[in-house]
Write a structure and sequence with these properties.
- Among the domains are: about 250 residues, Glycoside hydrolase family 3 C-terminal domain (Rossmann fold, 3-Layer(aba) Sandwich); about 30 residues, no CATH class; about 110 residues, Immunoglobulins (Immunoglobulin-like, Sandwich), CATH 2.60.40.
- It contains 14 helices and 18 strands.
- Helix 3 crosses helix 9 and helix 11 packs parallel to helix 13.
- The radius of gyration is 31 Å and the shape is globular.
């Protein structure tokens, strides 16, 4: 009998080698696929292969919309300006301060006037190498700028001493320059240009700029606490309130306005973060800064400042609406108290906390639920009117400076023929919008808000519903004085439903009895104010709710 043991041993070795090579091949294939591009570059190999075939069809799937890059860039620049012009919100315009008269001569104040906020930090940043500035935007509209003051603000000495401070970079350990600071120039630094003010006194235009974005949270609160990722770090006070230097600037401009040097004071709010606007209301802040007009322009993008120039000159009439609720004091927003950071209990155990507080070891808890922004302010106000328990001491008028959806115009508009038609799956809102002004053409933004019925089921199951929610909007075409346009807005019922987290079987609630209105938020508040005062004088709440539902039903003192 032949001995077969050597053959068995050989096959065992070969089997083992095969298994090892198979595993290696699989792993190698995975790695090769994952790093195919890197490997191809290293080996100078092509990452793709072009196969040419005979065809008579059109193989260009993505066709160019422009004849050249120059044509495309021109279109994009114009589009950006249009978005800004139709998105900026006019907040205040007394004494017909805006638009500026043709050929007006103005002085630009504030570091932001020469160093605009074009975008945010991190992924919100904007290439400003070819971006126009405010001076160029106004000059393009025939407005003359105080060159002496412009040169002073843009000088090397001023730029080095007085420029916005923003976090240096985005990193896990936010150690170097993690704070924001306004760093506005004091009034004394402008003394060399003061003799030029009178010649350019048609308006003093003040630009208030604030940065914000990835990198660090904004300092908040008079106690100097930053509320940033770096727990307990001292900040630069309340970054979204006026700095001492900005207050000083407004005070001196008011004095110059009083002595006739400046005719008007115009404020441009160049920030995507909600700045406190108490300084626009003398009764709230306790001081009159003489501000005639104010406009929220946000971050202007690469060429949006051209749209601002069009607005200030009157080439375009404002039609934008605020997308945030602007307060007199940001601490009136519960989100300011709820937003804080703390370390995970076991963060140190896993080396997630380093010197300077690594963000990986920190977390925040958001407690507002559905009551974010205007939903909180409007719901709490209704709770006060309705006498709901725990509504507390709350006065909407002294809390909210400008509500969500607010936006004034150089002309006036009237709504008529308001109607809501209901189908199985939608509401169709129709109304007529008329430009009732005599001078300016313009567009009007129509907003539709709804209120869901608050049923016994809702109360029993802890379902929360806001008092007012935006459910649709539309903008008219440009309407000449006296012209009208019929507007139609469709609201899907599915978008009005409420999620019931306590009912796992049927967790989407569809209720009947929705209330819809085409009034803007300021008009909703006027109706509620009338109801509140009537109830305070002894009228039953149900009677007040039924008697006053629209703006045109209110007494004259509530319609101003």
């Amino acid at each position: 009998m032949k001995n077969t043991k050597p053959k068995v041993r050989l096959w065992s070795v070969l089997t083992g080698l095969t298994a090892i090579l198979t595993v290696a091949a699989i792993v190698g294939n995975i790695i090769a696929n994952q790093y195919a591009t890197t490997l191809n570059v290293a080996l100078n190999a092509s990452t793709y292969k072009i196969i040419k075939g005979e065809t008579t069809g059109d193989t260009e799937y993505f066709k160019k919309g422009f004849a050249s890059d120059e044509e495309r860039e021109a279109y994009e620049a114009e589009l950006c300006a249009t978005v800004e012009a139709e998105g900026a919100a006019l907040l205040k315009n007394e004494n017909n301060a805006l638009p500026l008269a043709s050929g007006a001569k103005v002085s630009l104040f504030g570091h932001g006037s020469v160093d605009l906020m074009y975008g945010g930090t991190g992924s919100g940043s904007v290439d400003t190498s070819k971006a126009p500035n405010l001076k160029q935007a106004l000059e393009a509209q025939g407005i003359t700028i105080n060159q002496t003051l412009w040169d002073l603000y843009s000088s090397d000495s001023m730029m080095s001493k007085y420029s916005r401070l923003t976090p240096a970079s985005i990193s896990d350990t936010l150690e170097a320059n993690t704070q924001y600071a306004v760093n506005e120039a004091p009034w004394s630094a402008l003394s060399s240009a003061e003799s030029s003010f009178a010649e350019y006194g048609d308006a003093a235009i003040v630009v208030l700029s604030r940065s914000g974005g990835e990198g660090a949270d904004l300092p908040s609160g008079e106690n100097g606490t930053s509320d940033s990722w770096i727990s307990g770090q001292e900040g630069d006070g309340n970054y979204l309130a006026l700095s001492a230097e900005e207050i000083e600037l407004l005070q001196n401009l008011k004095a110059l306005k009083d002595n006739g040097t400046f005719k008007n004071i115009v404020v441009l709010i160049n920030s995507s973060n909600a700045i406190e606007l108490d300084f626009l209301n003398p009764e709230i802040c306790g001081e009159d800064y003489g501000i005639d007009a104010a406009m929220w322009i946000g971050d202007v993008g690469q060429t949006g400042i051209n749209g601002v120039g069009q607005l200030l000159s009157g080439a375009v009439t404002p039609s934008g609406s605020l997308v945030d609720t602007y307060l007199y004091d940001n601490m009136a927003n519960p989100a300011m108290y709820n937003f804080y950071t703390q370390a995970y209990p076991n963060a140190a155990e896993y080396n997630l906390l380093t010197e300077g507080a690594d963000v990986q070891g920190m977390y925040s808890v958001y407690q507002e639920g559905i009551y974010l922004g205007y939903r909180y302010f409007e719901t709490r106000y209704e709770d006060v009117v309705m006498g709901t328990a725990k509504a507390g001491d709350y006065d909407w008028a002294t809390t909210v400076a400008y509500p969500f959806g607010y936006g004034d115009s150089y002309t006036t508009f009237a709504y008529s023929n308001f109607n809501v038609a209901e189908s199985d799956d939608a509401f169709t809102v129709t109304l007529k919008v008329t430009n009732t002004g005599k001078t300016y053409s313009g567009k009007e933004t129509v907003q539709v808000y709804f209120q869901s019925p608050y049923t016994d089921y809702d109360k029993a199951n802890g379902i929360e519903k806001a008092a007012a929610e935006l459910c649709g909007f539309a903008k008219t075409d440009v309407l000449a004085p006296g012209a009208s346009e019929d507007v139609t807005i469709t609201v899907k019922k599915s978008e009005l439903r409420t999620y019931d987290a306590n009912n796992a079987v049927n967790n989407i609630l569809a209720a009947k009895g929705y209330t819809l209105t085409g009034a803007k938020m300021k008009e909703i508040q006027a109706v509620n104010a009338c109801r509140r005062d009537a109830v305070a004088k002894g009228m039953k709440l149900e009677e007040a709710m039924d008697k006053w539902q629209t703006m045109d039903q209110l007494p004259a003192e509530y319609r101003s």
